[in-house]
Here is the input.
Amino acid sequence: MSGKLQLPPLQILVVFEAAARHANFTAAGNELGLSQPAVSQRIQMLENLLNGPLFERRHRGVQLTESGNALYQIVRASLNDISEQIERTRHQRSTLRIDTDMGFASYWLLPRMNAIQALIPGVEVQVSTSPNDYNFRDSNAHLAIYFGNGNWPGTQSQKLFPEEVIPVCNHEIITEMGPRPAPAALLSYPLLKLPETRPQRWLTWEDWFRYQKVPAHNHAGSRTFNAYSLVIQAAVEGQGIALGWRPLISALIERKQLFVCGPEVRTERGYYLITSGVKPASTQQQKVTRWLLDEAWDFHHSSALLPKYK
Here is the structure.
């Protein structure tokens, strides 16, 4: 069924429900803050609309007619459903959803969830991940953090982190290679990587060696994983050398689980904070947005003080 519902004013149905439940117009009026004549007037309006009586008037109250009782059962159930849904909605926690990829969520966002939650107490923070590129039309997120060139139609984007990529390996491999190994030395080890994408979404090993002006046709082989967390775990376990994206691997380097074993390459791509270009931001979104931008600035500042690979 479609089109406009043929209903009397909701207030009249509320008065009818109370009068039927109490079987008394005066009692219904006392509950609703109305006079007995006001209740009687509204019941009369409903009866005129239905072209028939809903109550039999008696000396000490009223009694529902057969049609009145049938209507009461429906109105009572409907108003009860409305009341229960309003109560459930009132007690639902407000939410803030952040969409991102698994690598960023695992290595950067998750360690900072307590800080984000402290900004917006009482709000449920939801994190959703996807291996695919961000699609504004398919997202219900309030905020998104995705890797790319900053161009997502229908959105506003602010760069959080540029694409800064460094080769990383565990302690055993860096010990074998020695300090500051030449880029060509990495070809003696398995290269850990993600599957290729078309179009290319991020820096590849071929790109990195091209930046170093090293032919990469002959190397010890590669191992491909479908998730960045698997690439990094394999590097930590000494299965080969991985490309590490700052800021994802910075904490692992600080904890000496991974070591830089080659020069950094920086591109124009990066991680962007994405918001709707149409919907106004809520107070919670504004707080988290400011915090994310400040946190990114702090990371850039602290990274600038670290010694560089030469």
Q: What stands out?
A: The chain has two domains: 10-91, 96-304. The mean pLDDT is 88. Residues 142 and 281 are 8 Å apart (CA to CA). The longest strand covers residues 155-169.
